């Protein structure tokens, strides 16, 4: 079949538009960029959260001749509803979104829901009666398919990319790495792999070397396996939404709904604000509005096989895969906005950035005419909801920006005829990356325009869905407020794909470009992190999950990475370098590495708050051809303190070493101080091995009695809250002298007994200080005349126990009268008087 001359078609198309007959290709596609949202904001933005089964779907033209798909759900379960919801009481719910197919005419919004009849879904919907480009909150972030366990019939959730939900918190969800075919006995059965990108696209650099030889961990993508994951049930998910997500305080919202944005520009150190009114044309663009007499050109012929992605057959849509589908004939000429618009310079930067890798774009100045479906690639500017609705019959929804693409057949990846890029003016925008970072009030323009310009050359079009869960860095991720992405470079998959898309029309440029990022990709983007937030000068710091990329077509030599601490986000060699460098002797072209590094904070760095940054260079310490992406800083700062100084402990009492007798007591008090004020302090008193006194954690333990003879070294150790102990604890030596007998007494000192009865008496031997003498022999003797006839004493002798006591039994005989007993301990004597009566 004869191939179509596309240059002729484009000029013929433009001619007919000019004379008043609107002519387009059979297919139109809208690719939208979304904001990365927390699940709490998705839930609280939704007018209606519901579960339903797809009963039927139908497509039809609206009054703007744009195709709208209507999906009807039955078997409805309402999870949550607001007053805004128009369908909260309906038994059948209708979901309408932009795009679809009527006959051989197709229109498509790339991140619109793909729903199958008979399947059941959990949906977070904007349901206020308007027709949206995509009514699902956050694009595909608010849509989940329900799947049953084949054995237990328990219900679980899948994302639009067929990944299982395995966890949830107020910020978002965690998903499996595998795409799910089905679930059996609580375990994921993996979907058969579909067509994948070439292996070189996935090429990973090995871990870099270090002249000092260091061991680190590589490849973030291998850190988690699905076998370790516990699936989250539908019930658990819904309970979380009802009980936590809907009740979480959001603070500033990321989504803007029905608001009017502005532009923030820093001029002379001050932030200036412009209203969109002053920079948008007085006459609103029509964006290809068509009347009832639209003429559609019927096209026959082969698809341009150059535009297909690694396949001669058309695969079904693949979630999470990066690719291009359809290309433009070169050069791609983009009509710019007027030069006085704030976004003019960033538009120029974006097309120039792509041209650094493949020289495919040209521009011409704004011609002052209405923009839209006119055969010309254009930066349309900023549109409000009414402008978008008047042009197409649908509203923005949660999208940040769109690239409207005209082609003959997006599923067959045919030539792209025209692309128009527009931005949602419900959001406020800025060109100041520092002002935008972490600021939910504004959107940094550069990453958004890079994303949409990527669509204009065919990136993530047609069969390649915008699922935003990619495992590789790319400009095609959604917008993140808390990822340090300044939009000043592309990534290795982007470079790989644009080269393969256009290498048949223009040569591959020999650009040398490497980059480093403070984030990594695994089911979306995640920040690199340090092992803690506060450090001391001279301490080790571990920086986890830093991405290094080589965007070059060819291999390069001696790629190096160095790490710095800086007081601002501009990293240079004038900052504080941490340690030496790591290097790759040879770096494979179009490859990447995710790694963890342990460095040392300089010992002479002043205390303060610092940004952790990195710098990559080639051929040792040389710049590459494109330096805008050669440095990075982590999102969070760290605090550096002076080296921790040890605390000091002082024993206040006793004031020095001392000697006591066994049984004596000593009053112990102490004072702890710390020069860094790292309090509260911890205390430890140790009273010497063998003293029999337990350790104390009190600053002032008070009186302690020593009942064992010996010399005991008492220490007082103070430790600060960071775990640093006093290296020279304060000590005292307590010498406990043995208890020498100095006194003896008996209790009672007198007894009265009747014949043949007995009673005990206790003899106590004490030392000079009242200590109790243990182990001394006490003897007994009846010393009165004929006393032996009246009483007996048992035993004759006895050793004193630990209480200094010896017990004797006195027994009365039959003869009455008096008797005296003498007790003797080392010459010390005491006497017992006994009276015996009948």
UniProtKB/TrEMBL annotation:
<feature type="compositionally biased region" description="Polar residues">
    <location>
        <begin position="204"/>
        <end position="219"/>
    </location>
</feature>
<dbReference type="InterPro" id="IPR008964">
    <property type="entry name" value="Invasin/intimin_cell_adhesion"/>
</dbReference>
<feature type="transmembrane region" description="Helical">
    <location>
        <begin position="7"/>
        <end position="28"/>
    </location>
</feature>
<dbReference type="InterPro" id="IPR000601">
    <property type="entry name" value="PKD_dom"/>
</dbReference>
<dbReference type="Pfam" id="PF18911">
    <property type="entry name" value="PKD_4"/>
</dbReference>
<feature type="domain" description="PKD">
    <location>
        <begin position="653"/>
        <end position="723"/>
    </location>
</feature>
<dbReference type="InterPro" id="IPR024079">
    <property type="entry name" value="MetalloPept_cat_dom_sf"/>
</dbReference>
<keyword id="KW-1133">Transmembrane helix</keyword>
<dbReference type="InterPro" id="IPR013783">
    <property type="entry name" value="Ig-like_fold"/>
</dbReference>
<dbReference type="InterPro" id="IPR035986">
    <property type="entry name" value="PKD_dom_sf"/>
</dbReference>
<keyword id="KW-0472">Membrane</keyword>
<keyword id="KW-0812">Transmembrane</keyword>
<protein>
    <recommendedName>
        <fullName>PKD domain-containing protein</fullName>
    </recommendedName>
</protein>
<feature type="region of interest" description="Disordered">
    <location>
        <begin position="200"/>
        <end position="219"/>
    </location>
</feature>
